TrEMBL record:
PANTHER family: TYPE-4 URACIL-DNA GLYCOSYLASE (PTHR33693:SF9), TYPE-5 URACIL-DNA GLYCOSYLASE (PTHR33693). SMART domains: UDG, UreE_C. GO terms for molecular function: 4 iron, 4 sulfur cluster binding; deaminated base DNA N-glycosylase activity; metal ion binding. Residues 41-203 form the Uracil-DNA glycosylase-like domain. This is Type-4 uracil-DNA glycosylase. The lineage of its organism: Bacteria, Bacillati, Actinomycetota, Actinomycetes, Pseudonocardiales.
């Protein structure tokens, strides 16, 4: 039976990622489920030291059912490897679990989630954090960072900076670090510089 709640999603009270994933598949906490192909839940070892959270699935993620498998995902894999992370040992997810898009002909163009959609989906991220209990929460992009640290958070001011969890997330991770989303690197006029800065942020996070 679909999961619905007046204030958004209502995950089961469990630290079992399999149960959370099954419940999220039927979530109707916001309207994004209507157009998306499927819910894209996180993937990775349950006891990962690092949890990576992006904004939302993209077109390829929505089709394939896995997080970070499109062009931004390939760049992320390369950057993580260059920064010294073991991608296979990390839990990877998004703060919004459905693809939000605008159709232009046969193309589906990414559309930024609204604040209400981010808030509706946040209980699933909390559930994942409660299950994984990572040492490091790596937030990719402003939407992901603001989901945890509030709407006043600015990537431009605090990217790469180690931060304690806010009160709402106390005990769910040890250190948070925010940086840009890899999709912004792909769109940057000077892609090589943007890529180098992204990898530098990841290296700094690895050392925390």
């Amino acid at each position: 039976m679909p999961t619905s709640h007046a204030d958004g999603a209502a995950p089961p009270d469990t630290a079992d990622l399999t149960r959370l994933r099954r419940a999220a598949a039927d979530c109707t906490g916001c309207g994004l489920y209507r157009a998306a192909t499927q819910t894209i839940f996180g993937e990775g070892p349950r006891r990962s030291e690092v949890l990576v959270a992006g904004e939302q699935p993209g077109d390829q993620e929505d089709r394939q059912g896995k997080p970070f498998v499109g062009p931004a995902g390939r760049l992320l894999d390369e950057a993580l490897a260059e920064a010294g992370f073991d991608r296979e040992a990390m839990y990877v997810t998004n703060v919004v679990k459905h693809f939000k898009f605008t159709e232009r002909g046969k193309r589906r163009i990414h559309e930024k989630p609204s604040r209400a959609e981010v808030v509706a989906c946040r209980p699933w991220l909390v559930g994942e954090l409660r299950a994984v209990r990572p040492r490091l929460l790596l937030l990719l992009g402003a939407t992901a960072a603001q989901s945890v640290y509030g709407t006043a958070f600015r990537i431009t001011r605090r990217r790469g900076e180690p931060m304690a969890p806010p009160e709402e997330f106390a005990g769910l991770f040890d250190i948070g670090v925010a940086t840009v989303h890899p999709s912004s690197v792909l769109r940057a006029p000077d892609r090589e510089t943007a890529r180098a800065e992204f990898i530098a942020d990841l290296r700094a996070a690895r050392e925390k």
